[in-house]
Amino acid sequence: MRSRMWKMDVQFMLRELISDASVEALRMELAIVVDGGKSLTKLCHAQEGDGELLCVTTYDHWMEVLGDLNVITNPTIAVAQKIPLLPSVVQNANDIAITIPQRDQLILDAAVKLLPVYQKMHHDTNARLENTLRILRACRLCNYEFIAKTPLQALEDELVFINQLPKGDGLVKANERCFLDELKKYKDLAIAEMNKAIDDRQNHWTFWLRHCLKLRTWYIFACECALITPSSATVERLFSLLTQGFGSDRESSLNDYAATSVAIRYNNNFKKGY
Asked: Which residue, of 87, 179, 248, 261, has the greatest Cβ tally within 10 A?
């Protein structure tokens, strides 16, 4: 009985807290954290999986998040354009505000709090991570979805980024004409894949295995991209498997035995979708 009364008291205090006008700023700050963090968390989760060619979507995903943050934080962009990106902020602003102008001001005040996040991503895009993003921009040329929706001339302009790969410069010099000659066929195959029902579409690596003989030069490029991982998550998982399976009591195990054991467990987990 006492426990139930205590729980009711806590619920009452929480209800008073979130309805008290003195904590309106706190409500709006929590709301902007939810809305701003959603895109960032989704970006991280998408790039921390396992599998081949995760890198083909990283550049576009990064730029999409950066673009959304720009819309949210840019004071010259109308509130109406910010609203679809800030559902929690808008809901709380509607609860607090009495008039539309007051609501819009609450939204603007909350949105500007994400400015440091946008500035950090913008700086990283053009400084710290510039070279990495150039490599990832090249990798998206292995994304048949990107190829299908992009005009041929724009795709030809994107070919310069292949040079950003570790072996890209040599690959282009040896096969520049082949890249261009196969591009139209590549686009046709990509469009055909996109015309299928979503559940029937191949994943990116299966697409390349299926068309490796038709797109020989592009397949070589896809194999180079398959070596690029957008995060260290896979490597960290391998270290975790190694640590769990080979503690201090198994330090004398042979390297090939340890490597084989880790590979088997990793592949089994990958097949199960863990």
From this structure: 179
CA distance 76 to 85: 16
pLDDT tens per residue, range 67-108: 999 999 999 999 999 999 999 999 999 999 889 999 999 999
Answer positive or negative: Cα dihedral of 145, 151, 156, 161. Answer: negative
Longest dimension (CA), the chain: 81
pLDDT of res. 173:
80
DSSP string, 98-164: SSHHHHHHHHHHHHGGGHHHHHHHHHHHHTTTHHHHHHHHHHGGG-HHHHHHS-HHHHHHHGGGGGG
How far is 67 from 74, CA to CA, in rounded Å?
A: 10
pLDDT at 171: 83
The domain total for the chain is: 3
What single DSSP character describes residue 250?
G
Look up the domain containing 33 and give its range: 16-126
